[in-house]
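Here is the promised in-class demo. Please do not try to memorize the tokens; focus on the logic of going from shape to residues.
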């Protein structure tokens, strides 16, 4: 089969997977910049809600690149028909159905020693070459991997704000996850990851292993946010306060939930609902009694 015929067959195959026309794929790949927004968002501290700043006082920012129109629809199709079918380790809590920052924190309840760190600029640090390799590793041809990479990246990196970005980031980081899981399993350490937040905990002191943990991440080409790297007990993990026998919301969430409770005009009370979801994990109703899970 001639190369042009093979390319055409591959394009038709991808179009059938994504439920669109071959012409749409080619048009979007050629005009990809027209289907992305671009705005700058100030980074806020999860505990205080205040804008993060550099030592000179300037605010820290992130670039949000949401996709629009037909590209967003096709990205949703890529997520549903390709990315979501790939199994992830149970340790992954972000971008996975029925998992959240609450289930992530809950996994570490009761562990005296906790180590948390954060991946710096996680999405933009995932390059188009890594995305291309991901699709090749999933068994797709060079042609299909090229089109899928074009449809899910912009300016040679993974954008923040699209339907496919979290799923791709999870899959690109999967090999690093497996190395961390192996290390933690052999040392009785609980490990979870909520997107770019990595959390480790154990009953016994494992501080001597923290450098080895960070080395695994760094050797994979990812950067660590050292400001967010902490080794201590009863700390805030993915926005949740984690204690020995329970988890709870930080004070700012409880204050906002209290304010909602005193406002009779509100039809929806998101902070109250969120607080209830967190505290519900601490309850176990048996024979009409309320007990604390340990």
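The designed amino acids, position by position:
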């Amino acid at each position: 089969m001639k190369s042009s015929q093979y390319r055409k067959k591959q394009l038709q195959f991808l179009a059938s997977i994504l439920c669109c026309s071959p012409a749409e794929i080619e048009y979007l790949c050629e005009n990809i910049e027209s289907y992305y927004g671009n705005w700058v968002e100030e980074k806020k501290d999860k505990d205080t809600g205040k804008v993060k700043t550099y030592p000179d006082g300037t605010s820290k920012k992130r670039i949000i690149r949401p996709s629009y129109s037909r590209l967003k629809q096709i990205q949703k199709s890529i997520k549903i028909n390709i990315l979501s079918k790939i199994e992830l380790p149970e340790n992954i809590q972000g971008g996975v159905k029925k998992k959240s920052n609450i289930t992530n924190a809950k996994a570490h309840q009761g562990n005296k020693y906790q180590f948390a760190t954060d991946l710096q600029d996680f999405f933009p640090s995932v390059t188009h070459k890594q995305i291309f390799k991901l699709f090749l590793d999933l068994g797709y041809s060079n042609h299909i991997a090229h089109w899928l990479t074009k449809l899910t990246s912009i300016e040679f990196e993974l954008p923040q704000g699209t339907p496919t970005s979290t799923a791709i980031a999870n899959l690109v980081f999967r090999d690093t996850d497996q190395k961390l899981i192996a290390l933690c399993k052999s040392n009785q350490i609980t490990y979870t990851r909520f997107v770019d937040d990595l959390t480790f905990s154990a009953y016994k002191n494992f501080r001597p292993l923290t450098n080895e943990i960070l080395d695994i991440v760094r050797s994979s080409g990812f950067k660590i946010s050292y400001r967010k790297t902490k080794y201590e007990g009863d700390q805030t993990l993915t926005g949740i306060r984690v204690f020995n026998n329970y988890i709870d919301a930080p004070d700012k969430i409880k204050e906002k939930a209290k304010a909602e409770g005193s406002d009779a005009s509100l039809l929806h009370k998101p902070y109250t609902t969120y607080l209830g979801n967190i505290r519900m994990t601490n309850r176990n109703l048996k024979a009409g009694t309320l007990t604390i899970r340990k």
